[in-house]
Structure formats: C-alpha cells, structure tokens
C-alpha cells in the first residue's frame, strides 16, 4: 500500500533552518508530482510547495518563496523541503502528499 512518512520536524529559533524529508513507498515515485502542505492551529491546510516528477517545475506559496526549497531524489523515493530563515508564522504540521495520499505529518515549531 502507499505510504508517505515525513521526518525532520522539530523546534527551531526564528531565523533557523530545518530540512523535512518524506519517504514514499507503494507506488512509482519517479512518476508522481509531490507536494508539501502545512496546517497551523485554527487554520486551513495550505499548499506550500510542489515539484513535478523530473524536478523541472517547482511551485512555492508566496509566503515561503525565497526561503523554502523543494527537491527530490527519485533513487531514494524521497522528497525534501529545505526551510531557511524560519519565522514564527511557519509553525504548523507539515504534510507530504501525492494524488489522494497523505503522510501523518511532522510538527514544525518556530519559537524563541
């Protein structure tokens, strides 16, 4: 069955960095567009970034553009989200997604 397992979340100070990873299994990873979403307390889930199957096309939400970088390693069936210059408003649970499948999420907390 399809599994998406996120890792790399944690507590970081404002201005710090984290790298999230999402290990995929159960489908042909190299053929799928992959997405990162986030959901902050009391807010709707929002799309943060996506990457196409060949890493040719990438999209970023305006709120993270210039600070976050999405990438993938098809040989490792893993998609990454490098998050730099983190802000308190980036605090959320971050989810990996493809098609109708979702991971369990990883908590990112940005606080001093």
Topology readout:
Elements: E1 3-7, E2 10-12, E3 18-25, E4 34-39, E5 46-51, E6 58-60, E7 68-73, E8 78-83, E9 92-98, E10 101-102, E11 106-110
Parallel strand pairs: 2-11
Antiparallel strand pairs: 1-3, 3-8, 4-5, 4-9, 5-6, 7-8, 9-10, 9-11
Describe the structure.
By secondary structure, the protein is mainly β. It is built from no helices and eleven strands. The strands form two sheets. Strands 2, 4, 5, 6, 9, 10 and 11 form a seven-stranded mixed β-sheet that branches. The mean pLDDT is 97.
Describe what is shown at a glance.
The chain has 112 residues and is mainly β. It has strands spanning 3-7, 10-12, 18-25, 34-39, 46-51, 58-60, 68-73, 78-83, 92-98, 101-102, 106-110.
Reading the helices and strands in chain order gives EEEEEEEEEEE
**Average pLDDT figure:** 97
Low-confidence stretches: none
Overall shape: it is: globular
Class by alpha and beta content: mainly beta
- Count the DSSP helices: 0
């Amino acid at each position: 069955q399809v599994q998406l397992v996120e890792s790399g979340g944690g507590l970081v100070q404002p201005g710090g960095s984290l790298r999230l990873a999402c290990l995929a299994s159960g489908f042909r990873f190299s053929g799928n567009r992959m997405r990162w979403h986030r959901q902050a307390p009391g807010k709707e889930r929002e799309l943060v970034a996506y990457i196409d199957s060949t890493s040719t096309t990438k999209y970023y939400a305006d709120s993270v553009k210039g600070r976050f970088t999405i990438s993938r390693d098809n040989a490792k069936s893993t998609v990454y989200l490098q998050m730099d210059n983190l802000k308190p408003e980036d605090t959320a649970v971050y989810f990996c997604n493809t098609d109708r499948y979702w991971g369990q999420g990883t908590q990112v907390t940005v606080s001093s």
